[in-house]
Amino acid sequence: MRNLLLGTVALGLGFGFASANAADPVTLQLKWVTQAQFAGYYVAKDKGFYEEEGLDVTINPGGPDVAPPQVIAGGGADVVVDWMPSALATREKGVPLVNIAQPYKSSGMMLTCRKETGITKPEDFRGKTLGVWFGGNEYPFLSWMSHLGIPTDGSPEGVTVIKQGFNVDPLIQKQADCISTMTYNEYWQVIDAGIPAEELVVFKYEDEGMATLEDGLYVLESNLEDPAFVDKMARFVKASMKGWEWAKDNPDDAAMIVLENDETGAQTEKHQKRMMGEVGKLIEGSNGSLVEADYDRTVAILLAGGSDPVITKKPEGAFSHVVTEKAGIPTAQ
Amino acid sequence: MSAASYAEFGPARQGGLAARFLRSRFVAVTVIVLAIIALWYAGAFALNAPFQRELDARAELSPTFVEFVHSTWSQERPVLPAPHQVAQELWKTVFLTAPGSKRSLVYHGWVTLSSTLLGFALGTVLGILLAVAIVHVPSLDRSLMPWVVASQTIPILAIAPMVIVVLASVGLTGLLPKAIISTYLSFFPVTVGMVKGLRSPDPINLDLMRTYSASGAQTFWKLRWPSSVPFLFVSMRVAIAAALVGAIVGELPTGAVAGLGARLLSGSYYGQTVQIWSALIAASVLAAVLVGIIGVVQKIVLRRMGMAAA
Amino acid sequence: MSFLRSWQAILALVFIIVAVLAPVGNRGISGSLLETGPEALVAIVLMLVATAVAAFPGRTSFTDGAVVFVGAHAGAWQALALLPLVAGGGAGWGYWALVVAAWLLAWRLVTILSAAEPSSRLLALLLRVVVPLIFGAWLLFLWEVVVRGAGVPQVLLPAPSAIGARIAASTYLLWADFRQTFLKAVLIGYVVGCLAGFLVAIVADRVPFLKRGLLPVGNLVSALPIVGMAPIMVMWFGFDWPSKAAVVIIMTFFPMLVNTVAGLAASEAVHRDLMRTYGAGYWQTLVKLRLPAALPFIFNALKINTTLALIAAIVAEFFGTPTVGMGFRISTEIGRLATDMVWAEIAVAALAGSVFYGVMALIERAVTFWHPSFRSR
User: Is C115 on the interface with B (CB under 8 A)?
Assistant: First the structure.
């Protein structure tokens, strides 16, 4: 069956190849909905950077029910955007994802709490209710709680964890004392909802030393054995990083490009411009190539998850510099 | 359906035009709707008040009671939007936005409607074929039917992502995967209804067909199929509502880019409760209209077949 | 020629021949079925005997059924035994031919069993249960064989053996989820929702004004998609099971209301006239005549509501919940790509829903035994 699936995908790609003026087709699956978090790719498409490299790129937005590893395992994408904890866990489950680029250097994840709950430092979490995303995003949180020695079973000495949906209502409706937010997205939704920054206390995962690598580009290991695929990905990464550079230098225009590509009509200019500004801070310092020290730090955090570690053994071959080297991006030592 | 119960327990009610108007359905529905709207306003006040008090305390305002009530009905992110807020949003997105634009509810409604109709058509055809097979092949009746029932206990929201991914991997994207989820939800009522309907002719009529030495196919087309038409229409009404739910559920795993389900989800994601409610009301109005259309078609067809009655 | 009418036997014979001649595996594991060991020869012989018996559609006695049963299951057993050899996408034409031949024999078996009409009631009841079970078991067999033989990725669709292993390993977790979702949200919501629908229907019957006004509005409200109501209920009632029970109440209210109203109108005019001649008041007529006559409709709603309630609770848990519950488990394990856990939860949900439906159907049978639909044809 897999041969049949791959054959059909290859046939489809072949037709695309034949019909699109010899431009190589690439399908990119995003981790979430169309927003400035992925501005670099939309900019590269809009500004013709992909076209210059001879690529015909289709960008598929994600969403709450879309798991990028599932999509790539099913042959629905050539390359996906995913976070490293989820990708490493998937690798252990038998889908061999390999990191080929890492545009995001820093983590934007944080816990936002209401000041009136009296929380001033992580130790104060005991006995409180914390909102956590699941679906692959709970790994940094679980590692952090395990590191602090705080059980997550709802006991008075531990924290009560609730699965928050993808909005900030639990904090606003006071159903949770703290919620998980991204510096570029949900935090600003809380501010927009009318709660001023003075009434909030934030704990950034970067400051707590629990930051794991976020948005990176991943492909299936078997595809990296094909030199034509490596070359295609190298061109894709080169054009994408050019797009990210442009987005960082022109945040407002990048936000408008993202808005134009938003099919739901739900995004607002104000939110996207702000998001682009914050995302710019997270990609600072990365030239697209994965820094091995960052990778080791992420793996160490995930392995130390106490009784329920995210991954059970050190991954082998989970990242590769072959694509970034082919794209001419120097590997940091 | 037999006559309303009330009529037998009181003196005959005649009366002039005014009295009959007051007893009409139109007045009853209007009064109920007005009562619901009044309850809705009260509920909006009650649920939005705590956050409003917080907002006022922060801005150091002390409004009068009337002003306070008024502001609970005009919050930007209300817990329960007031009816006029929802109506305004509906008006804006349906009539004041170009139907081709991505912000128009008409556009999203059409996306959902197209997969609903396709899924409903496929589901009805599948349901009829299954029912014919179950009625005519005894082994299928004993073995397949319990599993058809069990299939409906599987929460579709859980396997919809898997279905979408598998179909995408064989190159089927866009309308068809969502329609397949609609088909999954809508074939069951049609199957159950048609099985009942195909078995509904009186045994005496089946015997009559035997005395005419009618073949299986002739019995089917001349007796079983016409008797099952009323059951078919009743099931189709349930099926089309189920197909709409399936289309909405199917939009979520496809990235939630377009359609009423996507609108619901993006409203929930950004905390735009007014958007959620306007998408909800648009969805239920759409469902009611579709069910109504089937009801009208049912009346026409049954009248032409000479079965118009209850 | 009567034996030509059993096309399943003809096809089965063709496939058995292919199974013997064609290679079992498709990469490196060349060699035919018979070379894998003596059990293969036994299985082929049993299947050939069964095919011979199945070729005559007139042969439907108990021994014939037993022969076909043995033949079909010998083929299935052999296919399962060969799975480790061909797992991961290595199955060749010979293997698939064996599977298809066994499946055709099983189909013939089901046909024989469905046509059987044993004289004892106990045996008939047993057959009614066994036939769907055989069908279901063969569905699982085909699923296992296709997933493992064709190498379908585990993250897309896990094999039933993996799901079974997961159920065995996580029974405590599954029970905790079941308790949270079913025993709290579903049962409480179901009882409250059905009771509310019933009472409102009685009130609407007593006050016709309400009936005229409420039903059309109710039709509109019942069309609200539950996927939209769930986040709103979470916003209003919090994260724990009350919000899920609220969603269940909304979902079960309207089918119960509509069916009770239809049921209350179902009593025949002649019976109502009889009650009038007895001088019975409204409530006496209601309790002694109209409610019993309405029971078939009420049970129709109760049966529909069993599955609706379960689905409503599970879907509601997708939108914000404490870290226990069937919907919670499904939505988070999908994100972790632990599809075997997802399907384990789905299996528990399907079992719970079917048992709930079955219990309601049994109660219906006991209470409304007089209704024509229970007469055997």
Answer: yes
Interface test with A, best of B260, B270, B275, B278 (most A CBs within 10 A): B270
Which residues, numbered 48 to 77 in chain C, qualify as contacts with chain B under a Cβ-Cβ cut-off of 8 Å?
none
- Rounded CA-CA distance C17/C31 in Å is 15
How far, in Å, CA of A169 to CA of A132, rounded? 13
In angstroms, the CA C163 to CA B267 distance is 36
Out of A91-95, C50-54, C171-175, C199-203, least confident range: C50-54
Per-domain residue ranges for chain C? 7-152, 167-375
CB-closest option in C135, C208, C219 to B6:
C208
Tens-level pLDDT at each residue, chain B (310 residues): 444 554 445 455 556 777 777 767 788 888 888 888 898 888 888 888 888 888 888 778 788 888 888 888 888 778 888 888 888 888 888 888 777 777 788 888 898 999 999 999 999 999 999 999 988 887 787 778 778 877 877 877 777 877 887 787 777 777 888 899 889 888 888 888 888 888 888 889 889 999 999 998 898 999 889 888 888 888 888 888 889 888 888 887 666 678 888 888 777 777 778 888 888 888 888 888 898 898 899 889 988 888 765 4
Homologous superfamily (CATH) for C167-375: MetI-like (1.10.3720.10)
Q: Where are the alpha helices (DSSP H) in chain C?
A: 7-21, 38-54, 62-86, 93-115, 121-149, 160-169, 171-178, 187-206, 208-222, 226-237, 241-264, 269-277, 282-285, 291-316, 326-335, 339-367
pLDDT value of residue B1: 43
Q: Are strands A55-60 and C321-322 parallel, antiparallel or unpaired?
A: unpaired
Question: Pick from A113, A131, A134: which is nearest to A122 by CA?
Answer: A113
Average the pLDDT over each of A94-108, B38-52, C184-198 and give the range with the smallest value.
Answer: B38-52
User: Would an 8 Å CB–CB cutoff place A94 in contact with chain C?
Assistant: yes
Which H or E run contains A81?
strand A79-82
Q: Is the CB of residue C92 less than 8 Å from the CB of residue C72? A: no
CA separation (Å) from A137 to A36, A293, A307, B36?
19, 22, 18, 41
How far apart (Å, rounded) are the C-alpha atoms in residues C143 and B147?
15
Touching partners of B (3+ C-beta pairs < 8 Å): A, C
Which tokens go with A155?
Answer: 């006991």
Buried b (16+ CB within 10 A) or exposed e, C147-165: bbbbbbbbbbbbbbbbbbe
From CA C68, how far away is CA A13, in angstroms rounded?
Answer: 47
Q: Which domains does chain B have, with CATH numbers?
A: 2-80 (no CATH), 105-304 (1.10.3720.10)
Q: How far, in Å, CA of A324 to CA of A239, rounded?
A: 11
Residue among A142, A118, A156, A182 nearest A307 (CA): A142
Q: Identify which of B76, B161, B266 has the shortest CB distance to residue A264.
A: B266
The closest of B173, B183, B52, B70 to B126, measured between CA atoms, is B183
* Helices B273-304, C226-237: inter-axial angle, 10-degree rounding: 140
Residues 6 or more apart in contact with residue C322 via CB below 8 angstroms? A154, A160, A161, A162, A163, C180, C239, C240, C328
Q: Which residues of A touch C335 (CB under 8 A)?
A: 67, 86, 134-137
Place of tokens 């009038």: C276
Sign of the CA dihedral running C156, C159, C160, C163: negative
- Two tokens, residue A65: 């029910």
Tell whether A330 lies on the interface with C, counting CB pairs under 8 A: no
Q: Are the CB atoms for C337 and C155 separated by under 8 Å?
A: yes
pTM score, whole prediction: 0.79
